TrEMBL record:
Signal peptide start-end: 1-19
Gene3D superfamilies reported for this sequence: Trypsin-like serine proteases (2.40.10.10)
Single GO cellular component term: extracellular region
Protein name listed in UniProt: Phenoloxidase-activating factor 2
Ranges of residues in domain Peptidase S1: 162-410
Organism: Psylliodes chrysocephalus
Listed GO biological process terms: proteolysis
Major localisation: secreted
PANTHER family: LP15124P-RELATED, SERINE PROTEASE-RELATED
Keywords (A to Z) from UniProt: Disulfide bond, Secreted, Signal
Domain of life of the native organism: Eukaryota
Pfam family, one: CLIP_1
Cellular compartment(s): Secreted
């Protein structure tokens, strides 16, 4: 009897089977993973890069995600098979919305946000009573030989040095512009997102981090490093957010223009562990180089990933737009995906990437003429998984929003000199 596959035992015993079962799904997965040759599926099975789609006679497609494993099978055909015809293009169901191709990645990619203690980005941990802000007396160091001005990285740390780091831990105060962002009422110590200090009173982050809870009270920690322990060479500074401005063209579905401006209630004090990051000019074209992304997010994608306690750093290469779009089209985003103009890309190396919980964190790239000095190139936005070969992460292109950031600063009578210091970057159109 001809061997074929059905899913009746996964659905209901009331659903009639269409053929005799010879193999279960575990056996199929095992054969696919161990086979060294091409896989000959039955005529009623459509090849797909992520799913095996079974088309029983006279029925709707039944789809199974085989333990979330991704197989490198042949691409989906452009037109119909088995004597049928498709007037347009055959694509996986999740790349089609109400009969139209999804070219933006909406509802397909993975947003770099911390789900929090409730296990879902749709839920928040809330307590009935307000808590007062942290009233500890902070005494940040303000006297040292560390260069002043935006974007100065401290590669050897300040006050202590980690040796033999195995989990990409950053040195203490290595990236002094890095801040953690969390809801003020959250008991959870883990930040919701990261951000970058551009002025003692201003932070930029991803809009998707704060847009849903814009009216809640948020807090920022500058100089943070170990999010669990408070015994650090220099204490962090915790400040409430006074106002949040979301870019007017932010689209939460596909994360277009995913940037937010946070204005703090009181300015933080610049010191050895707290400093601002430089910003590129409007429309600056990033050059090929290796950059750093930082955050307290997961070390790998999925349930097995662990959140970092100490700030992590990951060095990744800048990826040109055309190469990025080409590589992303080979993922579940599909061959019609179009990378929006507000994005840039970096990464694509195994085990090196931003991940869940890193949303809003900065991607910083080195200045050509000044050693250990950096500018804010991107903001962690989204990706397809984390740290896979030739799958870059997607970042907000900060250079596309420099004029908007300057406008927000002027509205609050803040000087832009904190991030604009003749760092040698010229716009290239």
């Amino acid at each position: 009897m001809k061997r074929c596959i059905t899913l009746w035992f996964l659905l209901s015993i009331s659903i009639p089977s269409y053929c005799q079962i010879d193999l279960d799904l575990d056996q199929i997965v095992s054969e696919i993973e161990t086979s060294n040759s091409s896989i000959d599926l039955e005529p009623n099975i459509t090849r797909n890069t992520e799913f095996i789609i079974i088309n029983p006679p006279n029925s709707n497609n039944i789809v199974t995600n085989l333990n979330e494993k991704v197989f490198s099978l042949d691409p989906v055909p452009l037109n119909g098979t088995n004597g049928t015809s498709c007037e347009f293009a055959c694509v996986p169901f999740y790349q089609c919305n109400n009969g139209s191709l999804v070219t933006t990645g909406e509802n397909i990619f993975d947003i770099r946000v911390n789900d929090g203690p409730c296990g879902s980005a749709l839920l928040t941990c809330c307590q009935p009573k307000d808590r007062t802000t942290d009233d500890r007396i902070l005494s940040p160091s303000t006297t040292s030989s560390i260069p002043r001005g935006c974007g100065h990285r401290n590669p050897d740390g300040v006050g202590l040095t980690i040796t033999g780091a195995k989990d990409n831990e950053a040195q203490f105060a290595e990236f002094p512009w890095m801040v953690s962002i969390s809801r003020d009422l959250d008991n959870n110590q883990r930040p919701s997102c990261g951000g970058a200090l551009i002025h003692p009173s201003a932070v930029i982050t991803a809009a998707h981090c704060v847009a849903a809870d814009k009216n809640q009270r948020w807090k920022v920690r500058a100089g943070e490093w170990d999010i669990i322990k408070t015994i650090e060479p220099i204490p962090h500074q915790e400040v409430l957010v006074e106002s949040i401005t979301i870019h007017k063209d932010f689209y939460s579905g596909a994360l277009f223009n995913d940037i937010a401006f946070l204005y703090l209630t009181t300015p933080v004090k610049i010191g050895d562990n707290v400093n601002t990051i430089c910003l590129p000019p409007q429309n600056y074209q990033h050059r090929p180089t290796r950059c750093f992304t930082t955050g307290w997010g997961k070390d790998k994608f999925g349930q097995k990933g662990q959140y970092h306690v100490i700030l992590k750093k990951v060095d990744i290469p800048f990826v040109p737009r055309d190469i990025c779009q080409e590589n992303l089209r080979k993922t579940r985003l599909g061959r019609f995906f179009e990378l929006h103009s507000s994005f840039m890309c970096a990464g694509g190396e195994i085990g090196k990437d931003a991940c869940n919980g890193d949303g809003g964190s900065p991607l910083v790239c080195p200045l050509e003429k000044e050693k250990w000095r950096y500018y804010h190139a991107g903001i962690v936005a989204w990706g397809i998984g984390c740290g896979d070969r030739n799958v870059p992460g997607v970042y907000v292109d900060v250079a596309k929003f420099r004029d908007w950031i300057d406008e927000q600063m002027k509205l609050r009578n803040l000087e832009t000199v904190s991030y604009d210091q003749n760092i040698g970057l010229e716009p290239r159109f």
